[in-house]
Amino acid sequence: ETGVTQTPRHLVMGMTNKKSLKCEQHLGHNAMYWYKQSAKKPLELMFVYNFKEQTENNSVPSRFSPECPNSSHLFLHLHTLQPEDSALYLCASSQGGRGHEQYFGPGTRLTVT
Amino acid sequence: GENVEQHPSTLSVQEGDSAVIKCTYSDSASNYFPWYKQELGKRPQLIIDIRSNVGEKKDQRIAVTLNKTAKHFSLHITETQPEDSAVYFCAASNPQGGSEKLVFGKGTKLTVNP
């Protein structure tokens, strides 16, 4: 599969569970991003990685923990989430630097019960 | 930090009419302004972008204008078609630091009625 892929596509978890979201990009990009998209809010940037280094943490609670082992893979580790964390989590990648198109994955629809 | 306001939140037009979506931004240092289209159940996709050294850019039926002095930019879609129905997001790029930080507007749901 080409472009940006995300797994799983849907996830239901309890507040005491631990789960991870995975993102993989096949575009040779250097930068990867996590966004949260909920019904009543715009796309919210969570984390940015450039060349595997985290360059942005947009005041995200510690129950969300990102990991970027290489430029092609990005994870979001989840633990002790709250119901208000239910949302669509989108991964994106770009060539890096500034002013480059971001390519989005299909997203993971997360429901916290 | 940067703040992006987008209006209207919903827009309904007849097929063939034009549609205009407007955004304002707060940080005068922002220099990159993309527009993304998100169809129902699908991922956002870039449709057009503009940089601060350009006042207008066109791509077939889509155009974007930028007024740096007033800190606003607009998306214009002419001869709208039903397949243009989607949510459109504007964004502004805060150039501080070495990473790309896009701040998005809340989105405009465009409905094109046949």
Description:
The complex is a heterodimer of chains A (about 110) and B (about 110). Chain A is mainly β and about 110 residues long. Chain A is built from no helices and 11 strands. In chain A, strands 2, 4, 5, 6, 9, 10 and 11 form a 7-stranded mixed β-sheet that branches. The model of chain A has no long low-confidence stretch (mean pLDDT about 90). Helix content of chain B is about 0%, strand content about 55%. In chain B, the strands form 2 sheets. In chain B, strands 2, 4, 5, 9, 10 and 11 form a 6-stranded mixed β-sheet that branches. Chain B starts with a strand and ends with a strand. In chain B, about 35% of the residues are buried. The model of chain B has no long low-confidence stretch (mean pLDDT about 95). At the A-B interface, strand 5 of A face strand 5, strand 9 and strand 10 of B.
State the oligomer.
heterodimer
- Count the strands of chain A? 11
Helix content of chain A: under 10%
The SS-based structural class of chain B is mainly beta
Task: Identify low-pLDDT runs of chain B.
Answer: none
First-to-last CA distance of chain B = 41 Å
The first-to-last residue Cα distance of chain A is: 32 Å
Structural class label of chain A? mainly beta
- How many helices of chain A does DSSP assign? 0
What is the count of DSSP helices of chain B, taking H or I runs of 4+ residues? 0
Shape category of chain A: globular
Mean pLDDT of chain A: 91
Radius of gyration of chain A: 13 Å
Strand content of chain A: over 45%
The radius of gyration computed from the alpha-carbon positions of chain B, rounded to a whole number of angstroms, is 14 Å
Mean of residue pLDDT of chain B? Answer: 93
Most extensive chain interface and residues per partner: A-B, 25 and 27 residues
User: How big a fraction of the residues of chain B is strand?
Assistant: over 45%
Major sheet details of chain B: 6 strands, mixed
The dominant shape of chain B is globular
